[in-house]
């Protein structure tokens, strides 16, 4: 398999997930086979709708983290394969529910399942995928794995509810925001990594190290995602910006801009995000305020901090191909900002 080398405008090699892709490639084929097999149902709508969202599923980052973590810990069996599929089912189920809650019409440029089949079908198929995930956990037979992944599922649900509470509330603080992304995004990253050590029957200290790696990687990942929604770099790539703004979501760039702005600026944020009275040019003004107060840059710096904590967590493990791939994922997640 050829290696694609990404370079930035200065000619420097850019971090990518190519190394992780190569490391996980063979196992990921088997993971996808498990996913397809467990999506099947006599109710025709279920595989249709589930197949639609899985096909739009992006990089498969979370199951690849399970595969790489198991490799890092020296696992030579196959338990990690259905568990990686389980992780992807949990993630996919949350996407289906998210799109219903957010009333989204597009995801990664494709029509969302709820926009094609309706909210009721999307919610119910999301429930079906959660059930399939738990079937895979039970088939694995480990109470520890079941505890880790079921806890992650409940934390994700708590994060969804917490986000509803903070939606459109410009008084939301940075800690409340971090609590939400730790639940909604980072908890599954952490669980995906920890079970790699569990299937390899490694000591608790290694389980905890991989959990810390995944948790902090997940926080960094979401910080950058939220920053990119207002980024010129994202617009230059032809990707949509401003979705969070149009939905009235309170993310870190908004929180910092609200805190640092004048009373007139805070009135702007209340009108556009609390009252949802958005006019032509408001998104551009929001971005200008973020640039003025350096909130996008500071969001990246926050992400670098969590990335450094994730990198330190891997210090426990000896050098290996898997460790190098997991380290580069940290840099890839953060460097998406540029």
Labels describing this entry:
Farnesyl Diphosphate Synthase, globular, single chain, mainly alpha, 338 residues
How are the secondary structure elements laid out?
Elements: H1 18-39, H2 45-55, H3 61-72, H4 80-102, E1 106-107, E2 110-111, H5 113-117, H6 119-140, H7 143-166, H8 174-199, H9 204-228, H10 232-236, H11 243-247, H12 252-260, H13 263-274, H14 282-292, H15 295-313, H16 321-335
Antiparallel strand pairs: 1-2
Oligomer status: single chain
- H/I helix tally: 16
Shape: globular
Task: Report how far the terminal alpha carbons are from each other.
Answer: 27 Å
CATH topology description: Farnesyl Diphosphate Synthase
Structural class: mainly alpha
CATH architectural category: Orthogonal Bundle
Please describe what this structure looks like.
With 338 residues, the chain is mostly helical. The protein is 73% helix and 1% strand. It contains 16 helices and 2 strands. Helix 2 crosses helix 6, helix 4 runs antiparallel to helix 8 and helix 8 crosses helix 9.
Structure, briefly:
With 338 residues, the protein is mainly α.
């Amino acid at each position: 398999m050829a290696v694609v080398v990404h370079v930035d405008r200065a000619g420097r090699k850019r971090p990518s997930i190519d190394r992780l892709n190569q490391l996980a490639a063979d196992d990921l084929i088997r993971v996808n086979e498990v996913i397809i097999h467990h999506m099947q149902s006599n109710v025709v709508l279920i595989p249709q709708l589930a197949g639609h969202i899985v096909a739009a599923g992006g990089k498969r980052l979370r199951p690849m983290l399970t595969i790489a973590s198991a490799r890092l810990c020296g696992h030579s069996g196959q338990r990690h394969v259905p568990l990686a599929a389980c992780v992807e089912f949990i993630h996919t189920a949350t996407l289906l529910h998210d799109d219903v809650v957010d009333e989204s019409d597009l995801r990664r440029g494709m029509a969302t399942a709820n926009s094609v089949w309706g909210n009721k079908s999307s919610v119910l198929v999301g429930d079906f995928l959660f059930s399939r995930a738990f079937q895979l956990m039970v088939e694995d037979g480990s109470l520890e794995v079941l505890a880790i992944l079921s806890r992650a599922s409940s934390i994700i649900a708590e994060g969804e509810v917490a986000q509803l509470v903070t939606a459109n509330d410009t008084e939301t603080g940075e800690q409340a925001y971090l609590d939400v992304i730790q639940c909604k995004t980072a908890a599954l990253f952490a669980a995906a990594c920890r079970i790699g050590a569990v299937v390899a029957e490694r000591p608790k200290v290694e389980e905890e190290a991989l959990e810390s790696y995944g948790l902090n990687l997940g926080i960094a990942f979401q910080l950058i995602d939220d920053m990119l929604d207002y980024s010129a770099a994202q617009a230059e790539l032809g990707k949509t910006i401003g979705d969070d703004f149009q939905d009235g979501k309170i993310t870190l760039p908004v929180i910092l801009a609200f805190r640092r702005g004048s009373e007139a600026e805070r009135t702007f944020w209340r009108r556009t995000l609390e009252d949802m009275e958005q006019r032509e040019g408001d998104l551009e003004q929001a971005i200008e305020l973020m640039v003025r107060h350096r909130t996008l840059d500071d969001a990246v710096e926050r992400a670098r901090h969590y990335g450094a904590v994730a990198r330190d967590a891997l210090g426990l493990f000896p050098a290996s191909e898997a460790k190098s791939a997991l380290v580069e994922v940290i840099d890839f997640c953060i460097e998406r900002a540029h």
